[in-house]
Automatic annotation (TrEMBL):
Domain spans labelled Phospholipase D N-terminal: 50-140
The PhoD-like phosphatase metallophosphatase domain, residue ranges: 153-500
PANTHER family cross-referenced by the UniProt entry: ALKALINE PHOSPHATASE FAMILY PROTEIN (AFU_ORTHOLOGUE AFUA_5G03860) (PTHR43606:SF2), PHOSPHATASE, PUTATIVE (AFU_ORTHOLOGUE AFUA_6G08710)-RELATED (PTHR43606)
UniProt source species: Hylemonella gracilis
Family matches, as InterPro entries: Metallo-depent_PP-like (IPR029052), PhoD-like_MPP (IPR018946), PhoD-like_sf (IPR038607), PhoD_N (IPR032093), Phospholipid_Metab_Enz (IPR052900)
Protein name (Swiss-Prot/TrEMBL): Alkaline phosphatase
Length: 534
């Protein structure tokens, strides 16, 4: 069996690129080429940040960990061993290897395993010195074109540490998804509030601005046992939103004109890579663009689950054009600004990503893929339908980029991709809606379905039943709004239908909170739109 670890040359190139961008001294070209041997003596558990898998393919996946222990503060590279084993009786080891946890990458380890059987669950673990990590579960994707009968995904986003506990992940584990789709705001960059100010839990970290402060924020979040356990339970597919860097930023600009934004951007991007199960090649291509000013990190990808589904992970944060009229224009201002979209229209995805998505959708149609799930950061359909195009629009979301939204809808129609579904997060509420060909005319055909999920813990923007009812009544394309509970979505796919179960915690401020099913919806194959099952 041909099984390999992460490609050392790509790791060296990544380290060099990050070093160049951040002004650090260039590392030796021999990074990653050492013989496994001595490392610092580890007294404390080095696996305090947990383990994870992600970026699956039909023959492999990425395994991740980051070594954290006080004795590593000023330590050099640390040798780390890894094993992949059969989940059957005896846990037979079928692949193993050795890697280095480099200080230049925060002692993070990314192992790219290949040569495995398709559509198969595996166990894995790491070892450093005498320490052994917990065991995790990873899976490969079905082979391209394979006939697949089912897929279960969990949809999650927005997990501000202070706002609540991660009890949602404890319940998600019981639901046993095949993969978690996380659509942004894995961390929040803001400084911790004073203790006793109504937060569920407290931290005193400063606002994240430097590589070390972003690393500290991820270390805090990843110390949560429920989050760790969910990462170990199945692969995660991840994209980011704004708080991984700075609130409401876009591309190379800061909405608040942060003076050190360029350096902060590089630091946040490196910290993101260090803490996510991402492939080196994906990040390296983006870093080369970041060096030349031609682009940033390549987060957008698609994953095929046989012929059953293609899942697209989009990045509507990094390549977007600047908003018009500021963040939240008044109605009179919006009529002038957003109601008169400039030519050419502004983009949320950037032209290159738009072209990539169009091609991938057409390819999926040609391959006979049954479902096309488009995961992106935020609500897609209008929340200002009653006011009309460009009025009472928050300009950070799709309502502030109406031309870009219409272009994506037109692409869905033109591609003839089967059963398109938009998935999102960001707004801290559940929002289920029909996607009409003209989003401001419910008389136009329904061409897709939208399921925008609530947050894992972050607070709601309008946490009251009257506010939810008002939003629902003013937006006739919307079937369901619920902002009062935190939780996640559970997506069950078969060739015939997609069933979405919305799960809400009883009390996010309690680590032992129970959970309820808020609503269940179904989208039938070949029939765009959604109907309630509860």
């Amino acid at each position: 069996m041909d099984v390999s670890g992460s490609v050392s040359s790509q790791r060296r190139a990544l380290i060099s690129a990050f070093a160049t961008l951040s002004g650090l001294a260039m590392l030796s070209a021999h990074v990653g080429a050492r013989a496994i041997g001595a490392g610092p003596r580890l007294v404390n558990d080095p696996f305090a940040a947990g383990i994870a898998s992600g970026s699956p393919s039909p023959d492999g996946f990425v395994l991740w960990t980051r070594l954290l222990a006080p004795e590593l503060l000023n330590a050099g590279p640390v040798p780390v061993r890894w094993e992949v084993f059969d989940e059957g009786v005896g846990h037979r080891v079928i692949a193993s290897g050795e890697s280095w946890a480099e200080p230049a990458l925060g002692h993070a380890v990314h192992v790219e395993v290949t040569g495995l059987r398709s559509d198969t669950w595996y166990g894995y673990r790491f070892m450093a010195g005498e320490a052994v990590s917990a065991s995790g579960r990873a899976r490969t994707l079905p082979a391209s074109g394979a006939t697949v009968d089912r897929l279960r995904l969990a949809l999650a986003s927005c997990q501000r540490w202070e706002s609540g506990h991660y009890a949602a992940y404890r319940h998600m584990r019981v639901d046993s998804p095949d993969m978690v789709v996380f659509v942004g705001d894995y961390i929040y960059e803001r400084a911790g509030a004073s203790a006793g100010r109504g937060e569920a839990r407290h931290h005193d970290l400063p606002q994240a601005r430097t590589l070390e402060s972003y690393r500290a924020r991820y270390a805090l979040y990843k110390s949560d046992p429920d989050l760790q356990a969910m990462h170990a339970a199945c692969p995660w597919l991840v994209t980011w939103d704004d708080h991984e860097l700075e609130n409401n930023h876009g591309g190379t600009w800061s909405i608040t004109d942060t003076p050190d934004f360029a350096a902060r951007r590089v630091a946040s991007y490196q910290a993101y890579y260090e803490h996510m199960p991402l492939r080196a090649a994906t990040m390296l291509a983006g870093l080369q663009g970041l060096q030349t000013g031609a682009g940033g990190l390549r987060i957008h990808q698609h994953y095929d689950h046989g012929r059953l589904a293609r899942l697209y992970l989009l990045d509507n944060r990094q390549y977007r054009d600047r908003p018009l009229c500021g963040k939240a224009p008044k109605a009179a201002e919006a009529r002038v600004c957003l109601g008169q979209e400039p030519t050419p229209r502004r983009s949320m995805l950037g032209r290159a990503q738009e072209q990539w998505l169009e091609g991938a959708l057409r390819d999926a149609h040609g391959a006979g893929t049954a479902w096309n799930l488009i995961a992106q950061q935020t609500r897609f359909t209008p929340a200002n339908y009653g006011h009309g195009l460009g009025v009472s629009a928050g300009t950070d979301g799709w309502d502030g980029y109406p031309g870009a939204r219409q272009a994506l809808i037109d692409t869905l129609v033109a591609s003839a991709a089967r059963n398109p579904v938009l998935l999102g997060g960001d707004i801290h509420k559940n929002w289920v809606a029909q996607v009409h060909q003209n989003p401001y005319s419910i008389a136009s055909p329904v061409v897709a379905t939208e399921y925008c999920g609530t947050s894992i813990s972050s607070g709601a923007t309008a946490a009251s039943a009257p506010a939810d009812a008002k939003a629902r009544q003013g937006n006739p394309h919307c079937l369901f709004v619920h902002s009062r509970k935190r939780g996640y979505g559970l997506i069950d796919l078969s060739p015939e239908r997609m069933v979405v179960t919305l799960r809400g915690l009883e009390d996010v401020t309690r680590a032992d909170s129970g959970i309820d099913t808020l609503a269940t919806f179904v989208t039938e194959a070949g029939r765009p739109g959604v109907r309630s099952l509860s």
